[in-house]
Amino acid sequence: MMTRRIYILLPLILLFANTFSAKSEEYCSFLKRVQEYQKGVKLLDHKNDECNPAEVDTTTFNIKTYLSLFDQLRLVPNRELWLCNFYGYSAGQPIMYVRPKDFKEDEYFLQAQKKFNAQMDSILGARSIIYSKDSSTKKELAFIKKWVDRQKSCFTPTAALIQYARDSVNRAEYNFIPNDTKNGFIQLLFFNRMGSRFALYWHSNYQLMSIICDQQDVQYHLADCQKQGSNMTFEEEKFEEQSHIDVSPKVSVSNDAYYIEWYEFEFHEGLYKRSFKIERQAPYRITLVREERVVKTTVNYFY
After folding, report:
1. What digits encode the pLDDT tens for the residues 112-169?
2. What are the distances in angstroms from CA 130 to CA 126, 134, 137, 271, 280?
């Protein structure tokens, strides 16, 4: 009887194992495909033009192609996905945001410009009152006026859109509806964590991060750390240990939430094992419920 039970249970165990493996491969396929696309996005750097900083090279990034990679997500009604170049002189990255399909960009810019100019005039007016009491501060007042005029001239349509895109109401990660499936919520979590974290410029590279899904990913980042030589200190033995364990994403579901556990590699911080809870109902609130740094890295240089 015992032998018969073992024979009955064995096919079930194999079935569950194969199902789990297939789902892990499905998650991994998505994660690798999107991150590979992100790595291919390049920057155009307009040097010596302070009013025209870096921007994403549109020959290497297509918004429709990017959105198509998230086939388990759909935007809220009457919204379109857009990319905003949020770059300055020493840092920057794109912002993925949404706006109404009938959004009138020219009208919005004129309204935003009027508001911005009023703010600048208010600053100048306040300083004028202070400095007018002392004739020796004419140079300082002239400097502030010149600075205000410069700020006004640099308030471009791109600057206005940055204000719009940075508003949490318009951020893309808060305007998706996921399919109520494990794949849907894997994609939602990825967009929340990594949707705009690519094409990083200069100091923004401190945010450099990758989602790990298999031993190949671990070995790739281990080799990359080893190549850094004296530029990086890291726990090499612990890193090597991770290349021999299962690091694939794990997803479970309850009546009210999905639970996702995966590994994130932050180049400047280390390898983390993180667990998230994502509510199944809008607004699909995401909560970090557990975090463990399994490998510590320290970069010995500054950007």
Report:
1. 999 999 999 888 887 776 666 666 567 778 888 888 998 898 888 888 999 999 999 9
2. 7, 8, 9, 53, 55
